[in-house]
From TrEMBL:
InterPro entries the UniProt entry points to: MBL_Glyoxalase_II (IPR051453), Metallo-B-lactamas (IPR001279), RibonucZ/Hydroxyglut_hydro (IPR036866)
Residue ranges constituting the Metallo-beta-lactamase domain according to the UniProt record: 12-181
Cofactor(s) of this protein: Zn(2+)
Protein name, UniProt field: Metallo-beta-lactamase domain-containing protein
Keyword Transferase part of the UniProt annotation: no
Organism domain of life: Bacteria
A GO molecular function held by the record: hydrolase activity
Keywords: Hydrolase, Metal-binding, Zinc
SMART domains attached to this UniProt entry: Lactamase_B
Length: 202
């Protein structure tokens, strides 16, 4: 499985391209601010064609380029319905290109992507899980889980930690975590050393 990551905008949100391999269809996760040039370079370098966008949540630093990219490539944005109100008002009619995310697998660009609702950072925050043909696992956590930390919670006290404990920290230790900001980590590293997650998961 091919994973290409690059930072976007002043907050350096991580955008990711996911594909089975070079030279085919791909999925763009979290089309953040001003990604045009970086996206074009990554697509050209790997011979990729985007067929869909996925959003871990609806904050602007993760979806600001969705309307532009969606219109240019003719592709939809998959977003949890609870985060639809967070989209900028100037998204206008392009909002018709939004596909509500639902629990369960998505099959896009030759990939099977597991969607888990993990509210806390936002009401509609989700994580995306994938397993490569070789058996390696990754989970894209947006702003819910970072290396050594967790996201700011906008929900009820403890909601984010409960979501992570139930949906993310139950994954195997060797699962690679691709967060919305900062470096990659693993579930095992976070289980052992993340002070916000003591006693969560299994």
């Amino acid at each position: 499985m091919l994973v290409v990551g690059f930072p976007a905008g002043p907050l350096e949100a991580n955008c990711y391209l996911l594909a089975p391999e070079d030279g085919g269809d791909c999925v763009l996760v979290d089309p953040g601010e001003d990604i045009g040039a970086a996206l074009d370079a990554a697509l050209a370098a790997h011979g990729l064609t985007p067929v869909a966008m996925l959003a871990t949540h609806g904050h602007p630093d993760h979806v600001a380029s969705a309307a532009e990219v969606g219109s240019r490539h003719g592709i939809p944005l998959h977003l949890h319905e609870a985060d639809r109100p967070l989209l900028a008002a100037d998204a206008g009619e392009w909002k018709d290109g939004i596909v509500p995310l639902v629990k369960g697998p998505l099959r896009l660009a030759g990939l099977e992507i597991t969607v888990s609702h993990t509210p806390g950072h936002t009401a509609g925050s989700v994580t995306f899980g994938l397993t490569s043909a070789e058996g390696g696992r990754i989970v894209l956590t947006g702003d819910s889980l970072f290396a050594g930390s967790i996201g700011r919670s906008s929900g009820a006290d403890g909601e984010l930690v409960r979501s992570l404990g139930a949906k993310v920290m139950t994954l195997p230790d060797d699962t690679v975590v691709l967060p919305g900001h900062g470096p990659a980590t693993t579930i095992g590293q976070e289980r052992a050393g993340n002070p916000f997650l003591a006693g969560t998961g299994s």
